[in-house]
Amino acid sequence: MTKKIRVFSGIQPTGKLHVGNYTGALSTWVAQQDNFEGIYCVVDLHALTIPENVVPAKLNEKVWKAVSIYLAAGLDPKKSDIFIQSMVPEHSELAWILNCVTPMGWLNRMTQFKAKSANRENVGTGLFTYPTLMAADILLYDAEKVPAGDDQKQHIELTRDIAERFNTMFGKVFTIPEPMIGKAGARIMGLDDPSKKMSKSVGEVTLYHSIGIVDEPDLIAKSIKKAKTDLGPVVVYDAAGEGVRNLLNIYQAVTKETDDQVKEKFEGKGYGFLKKEVTEAVCEVLAPVRQRYLALMEDRAYLKSVVNKGAEHAHLLASKKVSQVRDALGISFSSPNLEKAFFLRKELLSKTR
Ligand code: TRP
Question: What does 70-81 look like in DSSP terms, one character per residue?
Fold first, then answer.
């Protein structure tokens, strides 16, 4: 048997997960489950970089919702590791170390930081060093491939640069990961404003902006009905404006039909027909996900057992990697008494949520 490719990816437990997250990330993770050794994380530490996300009870609930959506989408805990980033303390530890080998100039170039920090009065240091935490996520597990949206490409390139720099300075410790970016044409835009990408955060506060993965079918139908189209009355496939193009893209992303099939189906047809077909296709895929999600949200004990198992395996891999890193840096100090403190922390944690 050939060795499976190690893959790492994560989604932040913020905003409302939408159909673009499903077709661009989750469904591809699920489709590749048998070929990859997948490690899939709910990145709650990343969520801390935006102050509004840190409403404790809400954040906690959102993490469980994200775990449920991973499972409802079809990730199988027997095939992949599923866990919560903060359960494995090595993520924070390695992020610090990587901060110390990452030139500020590299982080200054990150377009996502520029976008997220614009128009904000309080920008935490964590938002600036967000990409080094993401690099830690990936490098801890020797991930060879990182499936992500095209907006994450720059962060993955940076991860490669950081890994190469560390390896040159301190010896070969890290595997250099490769981005695995979905088709650019599959970019799904907001229903209310098809000039901008469909957004988890906008979708949370703006009705009819997005198609939530676990939205009620009625809401999905209504949102698509209200979606912006073009001025003309019928679909002209090769000259579709951004609204119609977006609906065609959503249809294609969920049905996986070819360009020709989509063109043949909709060419010359009215927008009412297009919207009806898109609604049906989306609901056919998402309605069962919603059903499973609702059942999973009632079974916290099961969710906990899944992330416990995932975190246990992740922790094993991560602690090996961090000991290599510490050795390489000359800081491998440990004390047997620390075991006791770890045990105490575990006890205290289990008494909370
Ligand atoms: N930054 C990613 C996003 O916002 C989430 C993420 C965190 C991630 N760590 C990662 C994605 C590691 C891939 C690999 O979408």
Answer: HHHTT--TTTSE
